[in-house]
Amino acid sequence: MNKNLVFDIAVYFYQNYGISMDDIAFERHQVGFNVSIRENGISLYVRFWERSKGRDGLPDKCIILVTANFKTHEKRNVRNLAKFLNQVAPRYGYEFLAIENNEELNSHLNLMEVPIKHSTFYFAPLGEELAEQLED
After folding, report:
1. Which of 21, 51, 61, 110 is deepest in the core (most CB within 10 A)?
2. pTM of the predicted model, to two decimals?
3. Rounded to an integer, what distance in angstroms lies between the CA atom of residue 99 and that of residue 91?
């Protein structure tokens, strides 16, 4: 788990939502780490997979949005989170953004649907094309 990436995530949520680093759960595991927030009207769960080990057929270096619920202005906040990840994550080697089996969440981002194994993911490479897609 890259300490600079953790710091960037903490700063983003503090500057935009007033959430302190103490209220963000960073959990290290075998293939990367997870970020979880349940504060200030936000319910967020994101997986940062450094090595997928073929799990769910996803590539390495993938960020997976599992849950991203915001009490207010949900579409705008989800899109802003995706913009932030698209700008920051490539500096730490991440290459892809995915949404795990959540059509409602994808309605805010409109990523390409990709059936993988026994589930549906919505998927996009990080970079210029995603940045253009996320423009308001």
Report:
1. 61
2. 0.93
3. 21
